Amino acid sequence: MAKLWGGRFQKETDRIVDDFHSSISFDCRLYRYDIIGSMAHAKMLAKVGIISRPEAEAIVSGLTGIMDDIEAGRVEFSVAAEDIHMNVEQLLIERIGEVGKKLHTARSRNDQVALDVRMYLRDELDGLGQLLAGLIGELLDIAEKHLATVMPGYTHLQRAQPITLAHHLLAYCQMFSRDIERLKDCRRRVNVLPLGAGALAGTTFPLDREFVARELDFAGVTENSLDAVSDRDFAVEFAAAGSLIMVHLSRFCEEIILWSSAEFDFIELDDAYSTGSSMMPQKKNPDVAELIRGKSGRVFGDLTALLTMLKGLPLAYNKDMQEDKEALFDAVDTVKQCLKIFRPLVATMRVKKDNMARAARGGFTNATDLADYLVQKGVPFREAHEIVGRSVAYCLEQHKSLDELSLEELHSFSSAIEADVYEAIGVAHCVAARRVTGGPAPEAVQQVIQTARQRLAKY
Ligand code: ARG
């Protein structure tokens, strides 16, 4: 079939050029948005009198038929027709004849593709927000069961101070809540109608852009035609927000991998979410968590690809911009797939509470509490720090923990220490005493869970 833009050419494009610049293999996934956008455009053309009402109706019904056929798998797209926009237009002309040729009045593929991508991303942002909200809900449920499950908190991957599993999980809830906020914020900038910008300089036709915006549920229309066709900031913003989601998932996965090792032995992953080794019969590997960690790199790559694609482009549209799609689609697909599998991965893991508690009791995680105890008895903190440091050195020699020292032994380090010290440095007490807002004490955490649930209901 002749090209829709073939008028000024003497020759056909070389096959190799068709193959090279065609995007139909990946932008075909935009077909719904392309068709719905075209329907709104046709209705608007009729509304302002550029085409007649019967013509608009013929176009809309032709497009409906194309949508049905694509959905039923009855359409074979053409590489020579380049992209989804021209494939649909060509099909329309084949089906309804001359009237179909009027659809593209006052429109360019440049504003059309910007529209399609924005509509696509808007839907995906909503879906991803739902997935994140579901994950947060799951984590809150698990946390609620582990308000008193004591475990060591780490710095430098060295045992530091006792916390609870609930507190640890809630740290991730905070990250995922910020991720939802970022997606919502990104959506505000996605949700602006670019159609009407034409190729770059708007159009001489008296379009009713606000009507199209209402038809397609956009909050407003773009204010500069050059920007409307060359802006892909929203795709970059999503890739950045998606990268952060992946960073959060990846850090969590790293912990799941560590925790399920024999060295930590804090959790066991469900068989349904683990895999074996082809050679070593005993192995049970946390492959799912590793693969999420691994896939984070893809999304960072997509972000870099988008930034690099844009940085040298003069205004307005340049064909380089066709490269936005594979990066954006890959970022969306990867984040979606990872969020979907991560939720059941954590929901089904078995928590080994006793091992967590044992680890919390070792490693002198209560040393700060002993120092704080001394401060309460009137010892200046810096001095208390020194006293406890010497006690720890002694314990290491004696292969004991601080609470295993006798009162006489403790006395030899400071006369301020009395019998009430043992309660003060018991790990459960160390956690319970951290009642400060944002701290790990069960009541404090319970409070945060409640706030988080309220916030979740509003997403
Ligand atoms: N397939 C193109 C893209 O994805 C559509 C816009 C083409 N516009 C043009 N002037 N060649 O960017």
From TrEMBL:
EC identifiers of the protein: 4.3.2.1
Reactions catalysed according to its record: 2-(N(omega)-L-arginino)succinate = fumarate + L-arginine
- Record's Gene Ontology CC terms? cytosol
Q: In which pathway does it act?
A: Amino-acid biosynthesis; L-arginine biosynthesis; L-arginine from L-ornithine and carbamoyl phosphate: step 3/3
Mind telling me which PROSITE patterns this protein's record contains? FUMARATE_LYASES
Where found?
A: Cytoplasm
Q: Which residues form the Argininosuccinate lyase C-terminal domain?
A: 364-432
- InterPro entries per the UniProt record, alphabetical: Arg_succ_lyase_C, Argininosuccinate_lyase, Fumarase/histidase_N, Fumarate_lyase_CS, Fumarate_lyase_fam, Fumarate_lyase_N, L-Aspartase-like
Q: Tell me the ranges covered by the Fumarate lyase N-terminal domain, including all copies.
A: 7-301
> What domain of life does the native source organism fall in?
Bacteria
Nucleotidyltransferase as UniProt keyword? no
Main location, first listed in the record: cytoplasm
Name of the protein this chain belongs to:
Argininosuccinate lyase
- Top-down, what is the taxonomic lineage of the species of origin? Bacteria, Bacillati, Bacillota, Clostridia, Eubacteriales
